[in-house]
Design goal:
Layout lengths: L1 E5 L11 E5 L9 E10 L2 H7 L11 E2 L5 E3 L5 E4 L2 E2 L15 E2 L11 E5 L3 E3 L6 H5 L1 H15 L7 E4 L5 H12 L3 E6 L2 H10 L3 E4 L8 E6 L6 H7 E9 L13 H6 L3 E4 L5 H14 L5 E6 L3 H9 L6 E5 L1
Helix pairs in contact: 3-4, 3-8
Bound molecules: NADP nicotinamide-adenine-dinucleotide phosphate.
NADP nicotinamide-adenine-dinucleotide phosphate (NAP) binds next to helix 1, helix 3 and helix 4.
């Protein structure tokens, strides 16, 4: 079948190991099912994989992609949940130490078909297109859990979203508005700041700029480049929820003094549960909120999408269609 896969790793030139070609049909273990992929969305995770982060050399070649929407074996429209828990695990699958994401241990979604455990398909509301639904399983689910589960945010709170252009960040801005929050956002790029306002941010700032107010919570996915600013932006008792480190994980000054003196809370967040994915699809269905799609490309032009993400030239999600 047609597939977009990683053949080798390169830290400096991740696209060198990317192949658009053919791979065997997926194996379907007992208790698993297949989904015919109609649309699949690109995540930074796919670039990390090509850099050899989160993916083992023995697992190559590996079909990339965590996210997909398509048709199940009975022709139902479904969204694929990307977190695969270990056999016998019950409860919150993001806490399973042996969980994996599609494209880490099991073949991913950038292909004609993907195999997943039966519980990993969620009904797609008819109001969402395949392209919109394909954006949800990673970036949007992560944003949903960051705000409402890990962040515990509620209507009336004020949140800062760092790095407004990213897939997770654009999801955070939209979902925070849906949840009745006051939304501040930063970006290095003036054009992206303008687009963040159009998307629903109440106010936007340059990366690192002093804010006029202290916020209840900061949503961090950028890491090193914005960490100090995130610490300084919080009110006493405020919360940073961190789910990514795009600019690197090592910080010069972690702000430890401020963390204890202002009693700040630092909370990690990773993906989300199947139930949270179902709640997210229902939320979008009910409110009319939709993922922002930066561009849609036929899957055989996936390389162009990877290149855009590698250079940071995007605002919202890049979606591949079959
Ligand atoms: N834990 C999880 O479950 C989970 C799930 C999804 C994603 N993630 C992680 O979250 C991060 C974002 O993912 P994504 O798919 O949204 O990636 P992305 O679309 O590539 O977003 C990256 C954004 O980060 C900002 N940025 C990058 N370098 C920066 C720098 N040096 N200084 C300031 N801002 C910088 C940029 O914002 P501006 O250009 O607007 O400044 C850019 O738009 C990734 O690290 C990813 O691995 C984690």
């Amino acid at each position: 079948m047609f597939a977009v896969y990683a053949e080798s790793f390169s830290t400096d030139d991740p696209l060198a190991g990317l192949v658009v070609g053919e791979r065997p049909d997926p194996e379907v273990p007992d208790g698993w099912t297949t989904v015919d992929v109609k649309a699949a969305a690109l995540n930074h995770h796919d670039l990390w994989s090509l850099r050899g982060i989160g993916l083992r050399e023995e697992a190559l070649p590996m079909i990339l992609g965590c996210d997909a929407a398509g048709l199940d074996e009975d022709g139902n429209e479904v969204v694929v949940h990307a977190v695969v828990s270990s056999p016998g695990w019950t409860g919150d699958e993001t806490l399973d130490p042996k969980r994996s994401l599609l494209s880490e241990r099991y073949q991913g979604t950038f292909a004609d078909r993907v195999a997943v455990p039966r519980p990993n398909v969620v009904p797609k509301p008819a109001s969402l297109s395949f392209e919109e639904a394909a954006c949800l399983p990673t970036a949007w689910l992560t944003a949903y859990r960051m705000l409402f589960t890990q962040g515990g945010l509620k209507a009336g709170d004020t949140v800062l979203v760092q790095g407004a252009g990213g897939g997770v960040a654009t999801a955070l801005i939209t979902l925070a508005r849906v949840g009745g929050l006051t939304v501040l956002a930063t970006s290095r790029d003036e054009g992206k700041r303008t687009r963040a306002l159009e998307l629903g941010a109440h106010d936007v700032f340059e990366s690192g700029e002093r804010l006029p107010v202290k916020v209840d919570a900061v949503m961090e996915t950028v890491g090193r480049a914005t960490w100090s600013h995130s610490i300084r932006a919080l009110r006493p008792g405020g919360t940073i929820v961190i789910s990514g480190t795009t600019s690197g994980p090592k910080v010069d000054d972690a702000g430890l003094t401020r963390i204890f003196f202002l009693q700040l809370r630092i909370i990690g967040s990773t993906m989300g549960t199947r139930d949270e994915l179902a709640s997210l699809t229902n939320l979008l269905d009910a409110t009319g909120a939709r993922p922002l799609v930066d561009r849609t490309l036929p899957m055989d032009q996936a390389r162009d999408g990877f290149a855009a993400m590698a250079s940071g030239d995007l605002f919202g999600k890049i979606v591949f269609t079959r």
